[in-house]
Design a protein that fits this description.
The chain is of the alpha/beta class. The protein is about 35% helix and about 20% strand.
Amino acid sequence: MKHPSQYKNEKVVVLGLARSGVSVAKLFHKLGAKVTVNDRKPREQSPEAAQLEQLGIEVICGYHPERLVDNTTALLIKNPGIPYNAPPIIEAQAASVDVVTEVEIAYWLSKAPIIGITGSNGKTTTTTLIGELLTAANLQPVVGGNIGLPLCEIAEDVSSENWIIAELSSFQLKGTITFAPKIALLLNLAETHLDYHGDMQDYVASKAKILSNQSDEDIAILNWDDEITRQLIPSCKGQLFPFSIYEKLEQGVYIDPPFSPINAGDPLPNAAEEASIRSIVYRMDNHSEQQVLMPLHSLALPGRHNAANAIAAIAACLKAGAKPAELIEPLTSFRGVEHRLEFVRTSNGVSYYNDSKATNATATTMTIRSLSAPLVLIAGGLDRGSDYMELLPIFTDRLKGIVVVGETRHKLEHIAKLAGLDHIKIVEPKASAEETLDEAVKLASELAESGDIVLLSPACASWDMFSSYEERGSMFKKSVHTL
């Protein structure tokens, strides 16, 4: 595509309202394009429509009209979640019209360098932490993308003195053409979103777009420990600066001494003891000496997965120009983000944690590994076709009991039976999602004893019962507080 300012008097179609759609529609209207916005939601469910129409923007709700995209259409900008088999997208591709997400638009507009963060797990924690670290280093970050403000809104206002810190999903990245962040951070890759992508090949290719347009003046920060991520290293065009919790590196950020991998059937190590003997260290290049940043036990967030998130964030901040000493205090005080291993309360000696953001099996596995007390797990949600066998070892080793909900309840029940769990509770759908979750919390509390943990870590997306993982997590917290 070309610069957004070059679409003046040309037809631009915005597919999907939501916040990013409204933002990008206003932007192209201001730049003089002929903007049409289309959303399949009924008019009464699209309060943003009236606001756009008052500006003179055409809005069509309730259906996709025929010939929405025609030979006069110059560009189609889609909401990331809209599948590529939607008729207007098929029409655009057939007519060789560029189909992009707002990430591509923001890249063209931004005067600030961009740190793009993607991966299957840990994006929000890492993105938020980078924002905190660069704020402490006085580098004027602005956080947005998949969290916070739409990138187009940010890109219009930033200067070259800022850094844009962008959490990016595979849906957003799939719709990019030239996007090339100054610093690209790829955390990990695990099987997820296959209902949207169709297969792992498309999912990995979409994630890898964060690297594909970089030059040798850019930085590529990759997880050295992730098998799939590591396979992308030969195709990196940016300067490689990896991170690892399992190996000492010639350059990058890593843990010393490294962790030993945990194999199925191994006893889980004590997380506090593991951290007490290790340090976060870095080498800026393969000619420099190893430098110790801080003891690992000083991190506020527990668990190996949070150690990996932290060193990934440190790598990005060092390459953005932060001084190492400026990073220590925020690393010791950062307590994480809502809905990600969030402590809720202790009741009758049982601790309750909200991990609603764990929307795949890998995320749930990592969370369970970071906790040492006996666990009663609440899990289940949208069925995206996975068999969840990945969870069998952790169910066998770590669970005292499980309460399963949602579309995947019987799949997870099957895994729990294979794991030999004695305490398995199935919650059939109630009149509302809130009632279903209330019942799950009640059953979990009955299985738990003083000293135990009740953990909501669904291993599934929320959309079978809830509008978002945030809504699911908030309802869980409400249920816990009303026990």
